[in-house]
Structures are given as structure tokens and as C-alpha cells.
Design goal:
heterodimer, A: Rossmann fold, Rossmann fold, 20 strands, globular, B: alpha+beta, 2 domains, 4-stranded antiparallel beta sheet, 8 strands
């Protein structure tokens, strides 16, 4: 049968089992939207901005394990995706983004709403392609889904010129497709694995360093089994947090520039560092020359380019985390780590993670989230809110965290939560955001209202772009340059502390939430936290905005100052280091 | 730091050259030359790439190229015997009769051809290794300073069959 490109597009989505499409229409995508009209099997979600759209698809993909699918028009529709594409790709989230394009005959003519989106996104996605012939359309879409979800998952951009959408052609959609340059590794090298286990078995002070790869390959239970079977303690990166339950005896904490003292110190003292699914990002290594200097390093990663790039490793293993873990479970044995675990327990109790201040602190807010919600997805924004969340959130199989780890995109949290709630209607979805990031995609409140999403949105309002302000306080002599959200024209030119004369905060988040029709609660005291969360938990069909008025100059501690080794940390505000 | 050579098989598609060259610029790899053309299989293009880098960066370059969906095969030519040639044209302007005599002598010694000629201008074609072309340029610059124009094509390379040294 002959069908249009747009009809084939819908057929392809169904064949790929796409049940939810995040889509914003426009002139060069109108035929695709026409083909979707009245479609029963695909929910088409209309956000309020394409950036919100792509973050929502990202949150949907991370929380469901399915491919997130976006559809936007050409030009500005496409360019508005860019930040979200980079965000998702950096964290290996499978997305397929379809962009409308001007007709092939007009490409290159500076036509209305024409941009070279393939050229723009080439360096921030896994694969990008413009469909140039109607007969290639089916194969290109099939390829896009395959590339996006396999290997190290990532973003694929498919640019669809309008004439291809309208042209009639075959209705065939291939089941199998061969891509000669793309062969994701499916097995694990037995010799390397044997070497790794031998090294591990001789260790006195071993540590598993677990990154996002374990979460992406859904290998939580395998990771937990391996840790328990061997008795080796686990340190996670921010992206790996939750790989084993954070309340587990063998869990030490996050490492990195805001990691826990015990985790960072354990890395510096361990004799075997068995790392899985991490790329040794600069936020976790500190000064690389001083990173895990006493350790033999084993590194499992699906991406060969991540191995021995930042940190030279002794035993490289290219494999998917789950495949490798399953193979390890067959041969792993119990180690005598009791002495080492005791040492780690001491470090933990010596400098536990906690905020010392009285009153309403982010720690208390996050601990209340831990108590209130059992089956939940927590999306964070970026900045101090994110770092506190990574320090204090308790995660398990039933509690997952979504966060923009690689790119660090402010404005990510709220729209990602929208996608997560759409994909997980039975779970509680909570956003932990700051007042800055919340304003970057605040327009999505309308989306949350329209789709009756009962998301709990926590705004930790300190009136500052807090993470940068903290750096200015600690390393730039308190010169608060462009970080005060209360700043108005009437303020003095330079200011290095909040005073009683500071202008009113704008916007009033309560009135703003109300105007959208959302439930809104302002919390100014510690004893109001629990009631606010209970209220939110029992509010159905509309989001609840809880604004927590926190200490303006609360800091994320501990911190490894730039250029320092991982265990050379400042533990508390005012300290000069240890 | 050392000069490296890579032979790269890629899909013969729109945008692939941009993908590869963009990888080098985006990751600050020091690309020295890149040549590309189709192969006996019209759907495959073959690139010859040279760059200067340390060992660690070069490992990254190969891995990063390998992870591109459009890249079919990466072959490291650095330490194996290859035949390598570069096409170069050199135009020498404002020549006196004595200059022209000199150019013909040079072309004999360097085994390059004089392929075109006008009363005051000579055009040389050289098909040699990159190093040999460098030497020729150095000599011509010395003899005919500020009067030469150079067109270099970048190197193409292929593995040797029976010859051990290139």
C-alpha cells in the first residue's frame, strides 16, 4: 500500500511501541500532527516550550527505561531542543528527536524557519540525520531507535523535510536493520574478567565505585548481590547513586567535590578500586594525579573512549554493566573486609554528612521527603538543591533520582518530573529545585495542570543562585556578582550579604502557582515541613508547590576546593581544610 | 608528540566529513591533513588523516572515531609500512631566464615535473611524500623568495605489499 511519509512516521512509532510523544506543532511539522490526529495508541503531550518538552521526554525515558520521543517543528522549534539534547546525551538517555524541516528543494535557501539542526546538534548527540528520500524514511527511523537504545544509549536527531512527509511511498517498516559501522559490544572478555577477580580477591581494602552505567543498564539487583557476595563496600558517583540502597551497610556514600568524607577518604586509601559504569569525570576525581594512588584500578564501561581517558586504569573491560555483573556473579567470592569496613564506619561517624544549622534546613526538607514517600521518583534541578539532594536523599529500588549530572542543566528538574509522572502515574513524583532553576521552565506549570499531574514541587528558596554564590563566598572574597535574585535597580552597585533592607522576592511563587490553579504552600519554619508534605501527598490531580524559605547563605559542605586532591576537603563553612 | 596516520573507512553520506572534522575541532585534536574520496564500493569513502599528538590523545582519537556511527573501520597507519604520496603544485612567478634554468635543474633532482610554462612563470607538479614536498618547498623558498604559490592536496596512503620500507 502507498502511504504518505507522515503516515509512515505514525506507523513507525507504533512499531517501535511508542505510547507517549512529547510534541509541539509548527508549520513544517503540521502534516505529522495531522497524521497523529485522533490516534488512539499514542498519547501526544503538548508542553509549553520545546525545552520543557525535551526535558520531559528525558525524564520519561530515565524513569521508564523506554525511548523518549520528541516531535517539533523546524527552525526555532528545533533549536529550542538543543540544551535538552545535550543534557540527555551527556547522561546517556535514549531519546529520538524528530524535527520538521523545510522542503528539500528549499534547504540552503535561508527559507523561513530553516536551520541546519543536524549541523547544530552533530557534536551533542549520538547520531543526527536528515531524511533526503522518501524511500529511506522507514530505514532511517528504524536505525534511529536502534542506535538510541542500544550500546551506550543516547540522542538521535531525525530531520524530516516537509516534502518527504507528504510524499507517497511504501508502507513497509523493517524489523531488522544492519548498520555496518555500529556494533555495540554484547559480551565481556573472560580473560580480563578473570584478571579483575584475581586482583579483587587479593585486596585488603577494596571499593566498588559505581557510576550511572549500572543504573542505565538496570543492574541494581546484580550490583547489590555482588556487593553482598564479596563484602566489598560501595561508593557511588552522583549518577550511580541508588545502584544499591543508600541505607545498606555496605554503602559508603557519594564521592567527588561534594562527596562524603568517608567516601572520598576510602577512595584515597583503597588498594583495589573496582569501578563500573563511570567515566571518571573531573567532578569526582579532584586532582587526578592524587586520585586513588594506592589502588590497582579495574574499569568496566560500555564506552571504550571512557577507559583510561581521565584516569589511567590497570584492568580495562569494555562491557555493558549488567552483562559484566552477571558474569562476575558466577565467579565472585567472599573477601575478608571486616577490618576495612570498620575503618570506613569510623570515618563515617567521624564526619557524617549533616547540616549543623538550626531551623529550616534543606537537609530537614530532604529527610522529610525520605520519610513521607515510599514509592517515588525525585527529580532535582541543578545547583545547591541538587547537591543537597545527592547528599541526603535515600534511594532504593522503589526510589529513583533523576538529575542532570553531566551537563548540569538548570531548569531540568521540573519538566523532567512532568515526563516521569506521565510515565509513572502510580508513583509519587517530587521535584527538588532552587528558586533560580524553577524560573527557567516555570511555564511548564500549565502542562502539569492540563495533564492533571499531582507532582510535589519543592522550591528551596534562598534568594540566590546559591551554588555560584557559595563559590563567590569561599573563593572570591564574597563578591556576590550577579547571583542575588532579589537584586533590583535601586540596590547599591556592590553587595556582599543579605540585609533587612533587601527588596521583596519576585515572583511570589504562591500567587504564581495559584494563577495556574496549582496547590501552594509556603513553609518558613521547621515544624511546618511534615504537614506540607502530607498535604501535597494527598492532593490529587494538581501539582503542589511548596516554597521553603531557607537560610540565604546556607552552603553545601563538605567541598573539595578546585585543584585539590579528593581527600583534601573543607568540611564545614569557615574551616580552612583538613 | 609524534606524527600519526590513520586510514578511515566511512559511510559515503552527506555530513560525514563534517562529523569527522568536527570531532577534531570540538575535542581540540590537532588535525594536520585530511583527504577523502570514494572507494571501489561507492557507498564507502576512505579518508587518510594525519595528526600530531601524544600517545594518550591518539588513543582517544581512535576510540572517538570508532564510536561514530558513520565510521566503518579505523586503521592505524602510524607504525606500519605504507606507501604515501601527496600531490602538490608549485607556481613560481617573475622568473628570469636564469631562474627558469634553475627550476628545471631542481625538478630533475627532485624528480618532479614542469607541467606548464609561460615566459615569466613556471608550474611544477610534485607527487612525493609529505616530507619530500616539505624539502622541495624549503629549497624553492630559499631560491625564489616571495615568488612562489603552493597548492597542497594532503596525503593519501595505502599499506605496502612486499616492500618493508616506505
Amino acid at each position: 500500500m502507498m502511504i504518505t511519509g507522515a503516515e509512515l512516521f505514525v506507523k513507525a512509532l507504533k512499531a517501535e511501541q511508542v505510547d507517549t510523544l512529547f510534541a509541539y506543532p509548527g508549520g513544517q511539522a503540521i502534516d505529522l500532527f495531522n497524521a497523529l490526529y485522533g490516534e488512539q495508541d499514542i498519547d501526544v503531550i503538548l508542553p509549553r516550550h520545546e525545552q520543557g518538552l525535551v526535558h520531559a521526554a528525558d525524564g520519561y525515558a530515565r524513569s521508564t527505561g523506554k525511548v523518549g520521543v520528541c516531535l517539533v517543528t523546524s527552525g526555532p522549534g528545533a533549536t529550542n531542543l538543543v540544551t535538552g539534547i545535550a543534557t540527555a546525551n551527556y547522561d546517556s538517555v535514549p531519546l529520538v528527536c524528530f524535527t520538521g524541516q523545510v522542503p528539500t528543494g528549499l534547504i540552503g535557501n535561508d527559507a523561513f524557519q530553516e536551520v541546519d539542526i543536524v549541523g547544530i546538534t552533530r557534536s551533542i548527540c549520538k547520531y543526527a540525520v536528515t531524511v533526503r528520500k522518501r524511500e529511506e524514511l522507514a530505514a532511517v527511523i528504524r536505525k534511529a531507535f536502534l542506535i538510541s537504545r542500544t550500546g551506550k544509549p543516547g540522542v538521535v536527531v531525525v530531520d524530516l523535510p516537509k516534502d518527504i512527509q507528504r510524499e507517497y511511498g511504501s508502507d513497509d517498516y523493517p524489523e531488522e536493520i544492519e548498520i555496518r559501522g555500529y556494533k555495540p559490544k554484547l559480551s565481556v572478555h573472560p580473560g580480563q574478567l578473570k584478571k579483575a577477580l584475581e586482583t579483587l580477591n587479593h585486596a585488603k581494602k577494596p571499593v566498588f565505585l559505581v557510576g550511572g552505567g549500572v543504573n542505565i543498564s538496570h543492574a541494581h539487583s546484580e550490583m547489590l548481590k555482588l556487593a553482598e557476595m564479596t563484602g566489598v563496600p560501595v561508593v557511588t558517583t552522583i549518577m550511580g547513586k541508588g545502584a544499591i540502597p543508600t541505607t545498606h551497610d555496605l554503602y559508603i556514600g557519594n564521592l567527588g567535590i561534594h562527596g562524603s568524607y568517608a567516601a572520598n577518604t576510602a577512595i584515597s586509601h583503597c588498594d583495589v578500586l573496582f569501578s563500573i559504569g563511570t567515566r571518571f569525570n573531573d567532578r569526582i576525581t579532584g586532582k587526578t594525579g592524587h586520585f586513588a594512588t594506592h589502588a590497582a584500578i579495574i574499569h568496566i564501561d560500555i564506552d571504550p573512549a571512557s577507559i583510561s581517558r581521565n584516569i589511567e586504569v590497570d584492568i580495562p573491560i569494555v562491557a555493558d554493566a549488567k552483562t559484566a555483573l552477571l558474569a562476575l556473579l558466577e565467579k565472585a567470592q567472599k573477601l575478608d573486609t571486616e577490618e576495612w569496613l570498620e575503618q570506613i564506619r569510623q570515618w563515617k561517624s567521624q564526619y557524617p554528612l549533616s547540616m549543623k544549622t538550626e531551623g529550616l534546613t534543606p537537609e530537614k526538607v530532604i529527610r522529610a521527603i525520605n520519610h513521607t514517600f515510599d514509592n517515588a521518583i525525585i527529580a532535582t534541578d541543578v545547583g545547591q538543591n541538587q547537591l543537597w539532594a545527592t547528599q541526603f536523599l535515600e534511594l532504593s529500588e522503589k526510589k529513583q533520582m533523576l538529575t542532570s549530572g553531566g551537563l548540569g542543566t538548570m531548569g531540568y528538574g521540573f519538566p523532567a518530573a512532568i515526563g516521569a509522572q506521565i510515565g509513572n502515574p502510580l508513583k509519587d513524583v517530587i521535584v527538588i529545585s532552587g528558586d533560580g532553576g524553577m524560573q527557567m521552565n516555570i511555564q511548564e506549570m500549565a502542562t502539569a495542570i492540563c495533564y492533571e499531574l499531582p507532582i510535589t514541587i519543592c522550591i528551596l528558596n534562598n534568594g540566590y543562585l546559591g551554588n555560584v554564590r557559595q563559590w563567590q563566598e569561599m573563593f572570591f572574597d564574597r563578591r556576590y556578582s550577579s547571583t542575588c535574585m532579589r537584586y533590583r535597580k535601586s540596590c547599591p552597585g556592590s553587595c556582599n550579604a543579605p540585609t533587612e533592607r533587601c527588596p521583596e522576592y519576585t515572583p511570589d511563587f504562591m500567587k504564581l502557582a495559584e494563577s495556574y490553579g496549582a496547590n501552594s504552600i509556603r513553609v518558613t519554619k521547621e515544624n511546618e515541613i511534615a504537614a506540607a508534605f502530607e498535604n501535597a501527598k494527598h492532593t490529587l490531580k494538581v501539582p503542589t508547590v511548596i516554597e521553603f524559605i531557607i537560610e540565604p547563605e546556607a552552603n553545601v559542605m563538605p567541598i573539595v576546593p578546585p585543584g585539590n586532591a579528593l581527600d583534601d576537603m573543607i568540611l564545614e563553612s569557615g574551616d580552612k581544610g583538613i | 608528540m609524534k606524527k600519526r596516520w590513520i586510514c578511515l573507512f566511512v559511510e559515503n553520506d552527506v555530513g560525514v566529513l563534517a562529523r569527522i572534522s568536527g570531532l577534531f575541532s570540538g575535542k581540540s585534536y590537532n588535525l594536520a591533513s585530511l583527504t577523502v574520496g570514494p572507494t571501489e564500493d561507492r557507498t564507502v569513502s576512505r579518508m587518510t588523516i594525519s595528526l600530531t599528538s601524544d600517545d594518550r590523545t591518539f588513543e582517544q582519537v581512535k576510540k572517538q572515531l570508532g564510536r561514530c556511527v558513520e565510521v566503518i573501520k579505523v586503521v592505524d597507519y602510524t607504525d606500519i609500512a605504507i606507501h604515501m604520496k601527496e600531490l602538490m603544485f608549485v607556481r613560481i612567478n617573475n622568473c628570469s631566464d636564469r631562474d627558469i634554468d634553475g627550476i628545471f635543474k631542481i625538478s630533475q633532482v627532485f624528480q618532479v615535473s614542469v607541467i606548464d610554462y609561460s615566459p615569466e612563470t613556471v608550474l611544477i607538479e610534485s607527487v612525493h611524500t609529505e616530507n619530500c614536498n616539505n624539502d622541495l618547498i624549503a629549497l624553492l623558498e630559499k631560491c625564489y623568495a616571495n615568488r612562489i604559490e603552493i597548492v597542497r592536496g594532503g596525503s593519501v596512503a595505502v599499506e605496502t605489499l612486499s616492500i618493508a620500507e616506505r
